[in-house]
Amino acid sequence: MKYHKLKKVSKLSRDNIYLKYDNQFKLECVLDYLDSDLTINQVVRKYNINGRTNLNRWVKLFKDGKFETHQLNNMATKHKKILLIEKELRKLTRELKQTQMELLAYRKLVDITEQEFNLPIRKKYGSKQSKN
Prior knowledge:
two-stranded antiparallel sheet
């Protein structure tokens, strides 16, 4: 698992087990929650977190910018880069679909024009052009 179990002895000498999660694990959980359609409870179950209060607190700290370790900053920067790349990919995919639709429309326009006016618009590959 991605967490460590720590024992702590109370004043009454009873052993209580506390779970301490490392910062990388916390950030992974927070980013998974923020970037997906999963609910808090689903993320808690997915990562086997002890209680939803922990995840709520981590999300609040993340949103407030209080996750201030070097490792977390690097991970957040990498995550932001990934998000930017994914956003650019979605934009380029939309533009490609738009361009493909325009090409199809132009081809259809040429087909209709050639049929209606009996004009050869497309270049016939392999045939020699006449010299004028």
